[in-house]
Write a structure and sequence with these properties.
With 379 residues, this protein is an alpha/beta fold. The protein is built from 13 helices and eight strands. The chain has an eight-stranded mixed beta sheet, with helices on both faces. α11 (314-330) runs antiparallel to α12. The protein is globular and about 60 Å long. The chain starts with 11 loop residues before the first helix and ends with a helix.
């Protein structure tokens, strides 16, 4: 089979706009229900096959919640470009927008190739404007595949629990000063790592990894293994927001995940790629989706890249997460609460320039990754 063209569009957002008369900002949806409806309608217009995994959890207006899939290309593919959005609920607004743009102008696919878009892995979080799911679980700390590890927390997290997770509605309490004091006492890097690593001791706390595998991840794992277990190669991109320079993108890989040499992959994607702990403001994570993928698909050659679209400062994002958690667990919890809206702004800024950049970065990475996957793995 001849390889597809190696030429990739330098401005994929312009390519999508040319076909849809839409700017990047137009791909953003105001809420989960409209994002889901737009995704499914766009998939049908493109000729994609649709699938959905219903969850028992409900939205704020008692609406049903589903993990949705759009599948373009071969139904029994040898090579798959897999794009995942919304592992962290509120971050799904950007991921959904990128996927709508991709449906408007998909990358070229060879006869044995497929593009699969996973729309909002955590629909409860998107609907309720939460990073966590219906059980306050951070799903990117929940993909443990071994039994007996659903306990414990970093020792320093225990000392920070009262600061991070006060059992009261949002209020001003000098959080920034108190966090700075903790950084001086224990070291900024140590505090960041203890907070974000993942913990299984405080069910109402931030970055809680859960006491068991959550319903959404379980359904997704079952679907993934049934549909892609016999595929030869999968390139997965997991899109997040919040970390890194404002409106820039940072690419990270999990230690030990992937078979391609990192320099070659970096050249193909035309971006620097770092291990998670080496990226600016980053940290190691326990129970991540990326770390689990090769074990979920043991007979598949898996490449995985986590893409972060930067928003505001780490302090602003963490404070927004803290106040939303207080609001949801100890206040009225509705999506119209100011704490919820501040978290939305922290993870999906309203700025048109930021939204244009997010869609451009997200689409460009998929185009380049698909070009590499379908070119490098051609027989």
């Amino acid at each position: 089979m001849a390889p597809i063209s190696s030429a990739q569009p330098s401005l994929p957002l312009e390519r999508a706009a040319a076909r849809t008369s839409a700017a990047g900002t137009d791909f953003f949806s105001p809420d989960y229900a409209s994002a889901r409806a737009r995704f499914r309608a766009a998939a049908l217009r493109t000729g994609a096959a649709l699938d959905a995994l219903p969850l028992a959890a409900r939205g704020p207006h008692d609406e049903s919640l589903t993990i949705d899939f759009a599948w373009l290309g071969a139904r029994r593919p040898r090579r798959v470009m897999l794009h995942i959005s919304g592992v962290h609920g509120t971050e799904a607004f950007a991921g959904s927008a990128v996927q709508l743009a991709l449906l408007a102008a998909p990358p070229p696919l060879p006869p044995d190739g497929a593009l699969i878009l996973v729309h909002v892995l955590n629909p409860y979080g998107m609907a309720w404007l939460r990073r966590a799911n219906e059980h306050n679980v951070d799903l990117n700390r929940n993909f443990h595949l071994d039994n007996g590890i659903w306990t414990g927390a970093p020792p320093l997290y225990k000392r920070l629990d009262a600061l991070l997770n006060p059992a009261s509605p949002p209020e001003r309490d000098a959080f920034a000063l108190r966090l700075a004091a903790a950084g001086l006492r224990h070291g900024v890097r140590a505090v960041r790592q203890a907070i974000a690593h993942g913990q299984h001791r405080y069910p109402r706390g931030l970055f809680y990894g859960g006491a068991e595998l959550q319903p959404g991840p379980r359904l997704f794992i079952d679907w993934l293994q049934a549909q892609l277990g016999s595929t030869e190669a999968v390139f997965a991109i997991d899109l997040h927001t919040g970390l890194g320079p404002y409106a820039g993108d940072t690419l990270m890989v999990e230690p030990g995940v992937g078979t391609a040499p990192l320099p070659a992959l970096s050249r193909a994607l035309q971006r620097p790629i770092t291990g998670g702990v080496m990226a600016p403001s980053a940290y190691t994570v326990r129970g991540s989706l990326g770390g689990a993928l090769p074990r979920l698909l043991p007979d598949v050659r898996v490449e995985f890249v986590l893409q972060e679209i930067g928003t505001w400062s780490t302090l602003r994002v963490l404070h927004a997460l803290r106040e939303e958690n207080r609001c949801h667990l100890h206040g009225n919890g509705g999506p119209d609460h100011p704490a919820k809206q501040r978290l939305r702004e922290a993870l999906c800024p309203a700025s048109p320039a930021w939204r244009e950049a997010a869609v451009a970065h997200g689409c460009d990475l998929v185009y380049r990754a698909a070009g590499w996957l379908f070119r490098e793995n051609t027989v």
